[in-house]
Amino acid sequence: MTKILMTSVRDDEQAAINEFAKEHHVEIITTPKLIDDAVELTKDVDGLVIQQRSKLPDDIYTQLKANGIKQIATRTAGFDMVDIDKAHESGLVVTNVPAYSPRSVAEHALMQIFRLLRKSYRFDSQVAQNDYRWFSDEQALEIHTATIGIIGVGRIGGVLAKLLHALGATVIGYDVKPREEMKETVEYVSKEELLRRSDVVSLHVDLNPTSKGLLTAQDFAIMKASAGLVNASRGPVVNTADLVAALKNKEITAAALDTFEGENEVVMTDRTNKGLDDAPLVKELHTMDNVILTPHIAFFTNLAVKNMVDFSLEDTLAVLDGKKSPHEIQ
């Protein structure tokens, strides 16, 4: 029977894993550990599925090869934690799950867009201090009167655009590869025009050399002083120090961040007692009453979790069977 090791497994994934194992007659060994600390377990398995944000150690690829592993399937859309060149040098096929549920992240972004437009972060802060007043500068924008800019109109950004369009918002988009089928929903514009016109900017790009630091001080200076920013893509897409400065200087009004620089140190950790002194940028964001932080959970829905498990395991079986996976990373 084929044996597959899955690392970084959470309790909420177990039902989908058990169902897949039963349906496909495979044995799936699970561990909450990162592959960094579980590489010894690969000696006794055929396939490997991982999930983590931290970069894999440089020497792990040769260890996996020595243990007979032929592939690495990451059950995430992002794959920057894997050194693709080193993996290929060790003969490892790498796959990801590029579209586990575009709607999950798009719906989260939509929720955050509403929260920024309705200034809910202000009321959350006030009510927490038993202040039930409201002020003139807290007047909201109705969604059908707002212009929402989407940077990266791909799978997720495209779904968000359709949701916004259905609600009557003006949707503008910037993408290096505009899609013809989206042009009735999105008005494609330059990045500069998008930043200048948008009431909220929502980021939905992959992390790659061209998208790292995509938004910096120069970009925030272009935006409306009343504008908000949503980042449900990857943290390094935004220069966090520049964002903090822009928020403090009132160049933009607010930000809702599901991903942010420094998140690897804090996400999935309990900081109740420890605090955030070792993550100063995150600490600064945390203390700001015009920032909404969530711990990289935009993807975290029932359908997305099942698809991430199923698709990554299907890719693993395909590679082990000598077949080509449509999700192979070149």
TrEMBL record:
<dbReference type="InterPro" id="IPR006139">
    <property type="entry name" value="D-isomer_2_OHA_DH_cat_dom"/>
</dbReference>
<dbReference type="InterPro" id="IPR029752">
    <property type="entry name" value="D-isomer_DH_CS1"/>
</dbReference>
<dbReference type="InterPro" id="IPR006140">
    <property type="entry name" value="D-isomer_DH_NAD-bd"/>
</dbReference>
<keyword id="KW-0560">Oxidoreductase</keyword>
<feature type="domain" description="D-isomer specific 2-hydroxyacid dehydrogenase catalytic">
    <location>
        <begin position="7"/>
        <end position="329"/>
    </location>
</feature>
<protein>
    <submittedName>
        <fullName>D-2-hydroxyacid dehydrogenase</fullName>
    </submittedName>
</protein>
<feature type="domain" description="D-isomer specific 2-hydroxyacid dehydrogenase NAD-binding">
    <location>
        <begin position="110"/>
        <end position="298"/>
    </location>
</feature>
<dbReference type="InterPro" id="IPR036291">
    <property type="entry name" value="NAD(P)-bd_dom_sf"/>
</dbReference>
<dbReference type="Pfam" id="PF00389">
    <property type="entry name" value="2-Hacid_dh"/>
</dbReference>
<dbReference type="Pfam" id="PF02826">
    <property type="entry name" value="2-Hacid_dh_C"/>
</dbReference>
<dbReference type="InterPro" id="IPR058205">
    <property type="entry name" value="D-LDH-like"/>
</dbReference>
<keyword id="KW-0520">NAD</keyword>
<comment type="similarity">
    <text>Belongs to the D-isomer specific 2-hydroxyacid dehydrogenase family.</text>
</comment>
